[in-house]
User: Which sequence fits this backbone?
């Protein structure tokens, strides 16, 4: 069923240019579904689209930035699904472009380090 949905998404993007932006938005939003198989399939479909043409690569990266990455600033480290991080990692590896993750790194990495520091301090204080 998931594969059928992904095949239909590819077909829509390929054959209906007017629906391309909407379908990319839907696929991007579905990458955060906390079901690894579904999330991974969405990322694989987005990767396939990125590899199809330079225009689609740019469109996918812009859509992911808008629909997924920009939403990270309101999350803590334990709220981000592992499947989403795995999918972003695969996308970066296959596209050989980490530039889309720069805003994520800039806004999230210091939060992540602060959380680790806070949790470490809490652990040390509770062990005294």
Assistant:
């Amino acid at each position: 069923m998931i594969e059928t949905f992904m095949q239909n998404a590819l077909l829509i993007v390929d054959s209906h240019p007017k629906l391309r932006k909407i379908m990319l938005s839907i696929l991007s939003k579905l990458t955060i579904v906390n079901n690894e198989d579904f999330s991974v399939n969405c990322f694989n479909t987005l990767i396939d689209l990125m590899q199809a043409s330079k225009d689609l690569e740019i469109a996918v990266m812009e859509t992911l930035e808008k629909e997924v990455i920009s939403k990270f600033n309101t999350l803590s480290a334990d709220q981000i699904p592992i499947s989403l991080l795995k999918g972003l990692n695969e996308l970066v590896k296959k596209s050989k472009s980490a530039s889309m993750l720069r805003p994520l790194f800039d806004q999230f990495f210091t939060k992540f380090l602060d959380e680790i520091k806070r949790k470490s301090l809490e652990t040390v204080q509770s062990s005294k």
